[in-house]
Amino acid sequence: MSSLILGFESSCDETGVALVRVPDDGGVPALLSHALHSQIEMHRAYGGVVPELASRDHIRRALPLTQKVLTDAGVSLTDVDVVAFTRGPGLAGALLVGAGVACSLAASLDKPVLGVHHLEGHLLSPFLSADPPEFPFVALLVSGGHTQLMRVDGVGEYEILGETIDDAAGEAFDKSAKLMGLPYPGGPVLSKLAEGGDPKAFKLPRPLLHSGDLDFSFAGLKTAVLTQAKKLGDELEARKADLAASTQAAIVEVLVKKTLAALDQTGMKRVVVAGGVGANRLLREQLNEACALRKIRVHYPELHLCTDNGAMIAMAAAMRLQAGREQANVEYAFDVKPRWPLDTLV
Fold first, then answer.
1. Can you name the CATH fold of 2-124+306-344?
2. Pair 287, 259: CB distance under 8 Å
């Protein structure tokens, strides 16, 4: 016997729906199907996410994606045992759409519902990979506006070791790209452009690299990129790849060095990298190389699951239920938490 969890993600500009099967014998939950719609093209004209447009698009996409997921898995809606949704953090309006759809479906089926922390979804997403980690581990969570190093002893057992005090790594990528005149979404465009540039072309700061703690700060790097772009003036177009490569190198060096310091501090021999920036090729190469020398295992989500998605929400719900950290309920009144620190979870 097993149970099916239907998960909804709608925290920002991706609508994700997924089905995860949870074995009753306590085995690892398995992803049956998932579907994702990105709003990148819609928001590109505005140079960033427009919350009201994001919310309206989630409304349009949620049910068609749900039908696709059910069809792909070969099951019907009545086969679903639990409905999960992203409760926060994120854009309030976007979160309300996912919560409303999930709770309405659950009520119509008389099935329990469960609100999930978006960042916990990212944190546990590597368990969906072909090489899932084992507890305990150090986690580098680099998702959108969040950059955190955490000690993870189990589901719901999270201790923040360090976090960003201003701009997160993802914001540093996106804002630096915008300063260079790169199109939205800037981070992936900057990373692609950097492949053809010289990472040593410009001497950019590595904020807090030698601070002695595990906190991050990338606002100063963004300012340095702005200063360098202005200094280049008409030469910027010709040197854009070099500036992109130098910017990426600075961000990645800080992430790698701080992660290694967290491993030294905790004595852990396993690290998990999760979130959108976890797909960055240079970060993976440098972290893999550094950890191989120390005989430390590194785990990542599958590349297509690094971005926001419903699979990670269904998986987090499944693992919380398995661990006894949560009880799905049949109270269909709901709220959302646009701001919700991960270390407040139990």
1. Nucleotidyltransferase; domain 5 (3.30.420)
2. yes
